[in-house]
Amino acid sequence: MKDSVIPWAVGRLGGVGLVGSDVCAEQDMRGIIGKKVAPIEGLRYALAGKAETEDRLKAKLQNGLKPVIGTSYPVVTRALFRDQVIIKYIPGSTEALPELLPEVDGIVDLVKSGNTLRENNLKIFIDDLARVNLMLIRVNESATIIERNQIYEPQYPTL
Question: Alpha-carbon distance 79 to 42, whole Å?
Fold first, then answer.
């Protein structure tokens, strides 16, 4: 199931589910209540890039310039760096970005072992920016009632 469908599915297919906090952070969760259950062992956000861009990225940050960060997690990246970076949203695998787009100074991605980054000749610049937790989510019944009441239901004349 695609991440973007999970909040919809929980609301329509039973009302309760488990999902990573990374999904909760990036999706429209109106009408959904979440509670942290446990950390997902080792899964965290990291800032990475090509080794030769590390000094450039750090110099930009120190001098008040905004480095370009590619990511599939723009909401989390914005929360972590506020207005210090320019975010280039790229859905899917971001590991290829530094090679394909030279203007990208680094990427923010989810990391568990770091193997995928190393396989793509990338280096972690800042590790453990934030942890990912397992979330128990359920439908907020009062929000669901409001949403249902706002749906347009055509009135047909009685014959």
Answer: 21
Rg of the chain on CA atoms, in Å? 20
- Written out in words, the top-level CATH class of the domain with range 42-132 is alpha beta
**Residue 38: Cβ within 10 Å count:** 9
Residue among 3, 55, 50 at smallest CA distance from 29: 3
Domain ranges for the chain = 3-38+134-139, 42-132
Nearest to 70 by CA among 24, 31, 38, 106: 106
Predicted confidence band of residue 135 (pLDDT cuts 50, 70, 90)? confident
End-to-end CA distance of the chain: 44
With a threshold of 0.70, does the pTM exceed it? yes
Q: What's the CA gap between 61 and 14, in Å, rounded? A: 46
What length is written for the chain? 159
- E-strand stretches of the chain: 16-20, 32-49, 68-71, 86-89, 106-111, 123-139
